[in-house]
């Protein structure tokens, strides 16, 4: 997992799992980790809460 600070001051994280099932099984652990600092996050507004979770499959990868 990597935590990234964008130019606009927002943060996002990127994680990699072997399969979608592995990611799904990791969700409770990810939520528990987020709950540790959720109180420090700003609301998005419009009832969206403090996170905007997205997921998908990698379609291109470059290795060093």
Structural write-up:
The protein is α+β, with helices and mostly antiparallel strands. It has a domain at 2-40. Helix content is 25%, strand content 12%. The protein contains 1 helix and 2 strands. The protein has one helix at residues 20-35; strands spanning 2-5, 11-14. The protein has a two-stranded antiparallel sheet. The chain starts with a strand and ends in a 29-residue tail after the last helix. The model has no long low-confidence stretch (mean pLDDT 87).
Q: Which tags fit this structure?
A:
64 residues, alpha+beta, two-stranded antiparallel sheet, 1 helix, 25% helix, 12% strand
Summarize it:
With 64 residues, this protein is of the alpha+beta class.
End-to-end Cα distance: 17 Å
What shape does the CA trace take? globular
CA radius of gyration is 14 Å
Classify the oligomer: single chain
Main β sheet profile: 2 strands, antiparallel
Total beta strand runs: 2
Unreliable sequence segments: none
Strand portion, in percent? 5-15%
What is the H/E order?
EEH
pLDDT averaged over residues: 87
Number of discrete helical segments: 1
Strand order of the largest sheet: 1-2
User: What portion of residues is helical?
Assistant: 25-40%
The chain-level structural class is alpha+beta
């Amino acid at each position: 997992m990597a935590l990234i600070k964008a130019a606009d001051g927002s943060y996002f994280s990127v994680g990699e799992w072997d399969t979608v099932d592995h990611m799904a099984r990791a969700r409770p652990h990810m939520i528990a980790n987020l709950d540790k600092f959720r109180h420090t996050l700003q609301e998005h507004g419009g009832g969206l809460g403090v996170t905007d979770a997205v997921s998908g499959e990698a379609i291109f990868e470059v290795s060093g």
